[in-house]
């Protein structure tokens, strides 16, 4: 959070006696002007704070700080029991995966069909429940967050590594980068629809990528091969 900019405090006119002499019909425009200035200043301060909050933040030793306000970002999709690893089949519990993206990156994707620098995608894994309240069938998300994974595009920091990096969070608020030898990097590189991200599982923006012709060759080939 940024400190409040004192230059954006409500304007107080130093000549109330003059306004009083103008009469009620002439003071109304002045009051409306004051209200308008206050509203504009509030918007300007809020915009600066949002921009700062949604940028990636690192510790001095290079760990990523968890963007704790990610649930206030743009919601993209939820998967249920999804896994790209065949060995993960037959788990003893069910999972929901909720995906969020910072608003600035989302707006950039809508304009171009690809992700801009400083994109932050957050995948939140929650345990599924089937018993609770009046539920008689199906599953719902529990309060238990099992894990949080962040996929971040930072060209100045990861430019020599394909611009993207993964970070995994447990109970900690900071995380070291997952080594590039991990399977998640090669899997995303080979199968992701747009810029190493699985846009194919985000139905509200897949058509955006298609309209901008930004779908990857690998994903396009895989899609054409499936019946």
Brief digest:
This protein has 227 residues and is an alpha+beta fold.
Any chance you could write out the topology, listing elements then pairs?
Elements: H1 16-22, H2 24-53, E1 64-65, E2 74-80, E3 95-101, H3 103-112, E4 120-129, E5 140-153, H4 155-158, E6 164-169, E7 174-175, H5 183-191, H6 203-211, H7 217-225
Antiparallel strand pairs: 1-7, 2-3, 3-4, 4-5, 5-6
Characterize the structure shown.
- The protein is an alpha+beta fold and 227 residues long.
- It folds into two domains: 6-53, no CATH class; 64-179, Chalcone isomerase (3-Layer(bba) Sandwich), CATH 3.50.70.
- Helix content is 34%, strand content 21%.
- The protein has helices spanning 16-22, 24-53, 103-112, 155-158, 183-191, 203-211, 217-225; strands spanning 64-65, 74-80, 95-101, 120-129, 140-153, 164-169, 174-175.
- Strands 2-3-4-5-6 form a five-stranded antiparallel sheet.
- The N and C termini lie far apart (51 Å).
- The model is unreliable at 1-22 and 47-51 (pLDDT under 50).
- Tally of individual domains: 2
**Low-pLDDT residue spans:** 1-22, 47-51
The tally of strands reads: 7
- Structural class assignment: alpha+beta
Content of β-strand: 15-25%
| First and last CA, distance | 51 Å
Report the CATH superfamily of the largest domain: Cytochrome P460
Q: Helix fraction?
A: 25-40%
Task: Assign the CATH architecture of the largest domain.
Answer: 3-Layer(bba) Sandwich
CATH-defined fold name of the largest domain: Chalcone isomerase
The profile of the biggest β sheet is: 5 strands, antiparallel
Q: Which class of the largest domain in CATH terms? A: Alpha Beta
- Dominant shape: globular
Order of helices and strands: HHEEEHEEHEEHHH
Walk across the major sheet and give the strand order. 2-3-4-5-6
